[in-house]
Amino acid sequence: MEEEQATIESQFFAFAKLFDSKNRTGLTITLWNSDYWMRQASLLDDRKLTMTDTGILFNKFGKSEIDINEWLTFVSELCARKEFNEERFLEVLTNCGLPGETPVEVPQYRKFFSTYKSKHALVG
Fold first, then answer.
1. How confident is the model over 75-91, as pLDDT tens digits?
2. Cα dist. 9→35, 55, 90, 120 in Å?
3. Rounded to 5 degrees, what are φ and ψ at 28?
4. What is the dihedral of CA 49, 52, 54, 57, to 10 degrees?
5. What is the CATH number that goes with domain 8-122?
6. pLDDT at residue 105 in the model
7. Which residues, including other chains, have CB under 8 Å from residue 14's CB and lie 6 or more apart?
8. 62: helix, coil or strand?
9. Rounded to 5°, angle at Cα 37 from 36 and 39
């Protein structure tokens, strides 16, 4: 049996339902799920593309979830701002595998605080 070719629409649906397939319809995606998808595709790297970049543009929609047409507008604007090739960007998102197929490291800023030592503790 031949495997069905991934599309940006099928990937959107899969990542929109990520971690909550019972309650989510897959018709809208949250910023967190969109960022997770970009991390899995190795596009969101915290250097050239950051969570601040995605957050600022996502919040222009004024809601916590956006549909695929709004998301494609979001990606288009993101690519224009960051000078990415939009066609290539969408191709990478389409071909990065289903959610969870590749381990994704979501930065935990708490690590910094759990190993933090005051300057007084570091001196003599």
1. 999 999 999 999 999 99
2. 16, 22, 11, 54
3. -130, 155
4. -130
5. 1.10.238.10
6. 74
7. 26, 98, 99
8. coil
9. 65
**Closest among 11, 68, 4, 10 to 43, alpha carbons compared:** 11
Tell me: the pLDDT tens digits for 12-30?
999 999 888 777 788 999 9
Q: Where are the domains of the chain?
A: 8-122
pTM score, whole prediction: 0.81
Angle ∠(42,47,52) on CA atoms, nearest 5: 95
Checking if the pLDDT of 1 tops 90, the result is no
Q: Which residue has the tokens 């969408």?
A: 90
Q: Which residue has the tokens 């809208």?
A: 28
Side chain identity, residue 58: F
